[in-house]
Amino acid sequence: MPTLTAKVSQSVDFIGAFDPKIRTFDIIMKTANGSSYNSYIVRGSAGVAIMDTVKKEFSEDFFLRLESLCDYEEILYIVLHHLEPDHSGALEELMSRAPQAKLIISNRAVLMLKGIIKSDVAFETANTGKTISLGDKTIEFLSTPFLHWPDTMSSYLHEEKVLFSGDVFGSHYYDERLFDDKVGDFSYAFKYYYDHIMRPFKQYVLQALNLYSRFDIQTIAPLHGPILRTNPQYYIEKYEEWSSEEKFRKHTFGKKMLSVFYMSSYDNTHKMAMKIMEGADSIEGVVASMYDLASLEENNMIDLLEESDAIIIGSPTINGDAVKPAWDLLSCMAYLESGGKIGAAFGSYGWTGEAPEMLHDRMQWLKFRLPAKPIKIKLIPTAEELEECFDFGAHVAEIAMGKMVEMEI
User: Fold this and answer.
1) Is the peptide bond before 148 cis (omega within 30 degrees of 0)?
2) Per-residue pLDDT at 247
3) Which of 173, 264, 165, 251 is nearest to 215 (CA)?
4) What DSSP element (H or E) covers 9?
5) In a domain, 407, yes or no
6) Residues 95-118, buried b or exposed e (16+ Cβ, 10 A)?
7) Distance CA 357, CA 400 (A)
8) Is residue 409 part of a domain?
């Protein structure tokens, strides 16, 4: 059984667990290199604080590492930066072994705590500026919600300039050498983690970076992956760059971007898409583009969706459903902020024609603004019906430009 600990700074040690065999995390992320559940112990002259725990299945590793560094009677505080099960899995057992310890969580974590531990437990909440003392060591808390759970917070050890960042700056990358200057090249995992976990919460990332800017950070201790000690500012700057970047076309042309995505079986939905794009492009201040879902890869879908102010999706109805690429496109919104984007749906059909309404309904749940009812055409569109498609595209584009209308939803 492993007993490895690692010295993070003079008074901070790693006591987490490694999961080299995991290949999928939170359903949506691939973890080709496995991952880690990082936990830390901070020792002060008056006692110690435990910073997060590990996934329940790895509790034995966690407790062995902890016990090699302290007695349970020394634990003054247990800090959970957020309550996702991979960081709170050993919490209940730890609290039973160290009943005198004070549990510190964020204000937003209170209801989640009750869902994790069914019995009443004593706890304190922390907002930005709250501090706890370990005698000669001071830990200050920072509210950093939605990174990536609502209850997330960070903390900073003043005397040794260590930022316990929570999930921010993490990577799903297993390497027991632990530190960024010792492990292999994890840059792809660092960016992949940002894209799939933090990208939907860019505005909250920037708010957190603003809080972190008050501190001289010499080490970043995240909850997953390598500990960042060689040049922490580099990783902070990458997050700032990725969260602030303006997309090329918007930045260059200063226009609203409207994207028409479609899939077509017999060219009928394609004909509709062409006319919708032409109608949208006829509106001053809008650049409309059209993309065949049969040829788009997921990364390109995400970039195009993020760049677009308005998104119009077309699908034929096949076996009473929209086609899979259309659903795949909308599933990419999990990586983005969809609230406020304008959406619409269209499609051709032979028998029942449910696809456009189904896409419309899904966009509603994704918090798109939906200014028009779906448009659908049976079989081959006539000249008159194609003109309706032109008007449909122009109408959605006008909304993108600020025309006030009553939303359908």
Assistant:
1) yes
2) 53
3) 165
4) strand 6-9
5) no
6) beebeebebbbbebbeebbeebbe
7) 21
8) no
- Residue 130's identity, in one-letter code, is K
**In 3D, which of 390, 385, 152 has the Cα closest to residue 260?**
390
The Cα–Cα gap between 274 and 293 comes to 14
Supply the range of the domain harboring residue 170: 6-244
Q: Is residue 293 part of a domain?
A: yes
- Three-state SS at 142: strand
DSSP one-letter string for 35-88? EEE--EEEE-SS-EEEE----GGGHHHHHHHHHTT--GGGEEEEE-S---HHHH
In three-state secondary structure terms, 283 is: coil
| Cβ contacts of 159 within 8 Å, gap of 6 or more | 11, 136, 137, 138
Residue type, 183: V
Residue 402 CB neighbours (<10 A): 8
**Residue 134 gets which letter from DSSP?**
-
Q: For the chain (length 409 residues), average pLDDT per consecutive 10? A: 78 97 82 94 98 97 97 98 94 96 96 81 94 98 94 98 98 95 94 91 94 98 97 97 70 79 96 98 94 89 90 96 96 81 96 96 95 96 98 97 65
Question: Strand order of the sheet with strand 102-106?
Answer: 6-9, 12-14, 40-43, 48-51, 75-79, 102-106, 123-126
Closest by CA position to 314, among listed 369, 368, 272: 272
State the CATH number of the domain containing residue 274: 3.40.50.360
Residue 344 contacts residue 392 (beta carbons within 8 Å): yes
Spatial distance between the Cα atoms of 16 and 201, rounded to a whole number of angstroms: 26
Q: In terms of Cα–Cα distance, which of 106, 241, 94 is closest to 164? A: 106
- Whole-number Å distance between alpha carbons of 81 and 406: 42
Last residue of a domain, one of 244, 272, 307: 244
* Whole-number pLDDT of residue 95: 95
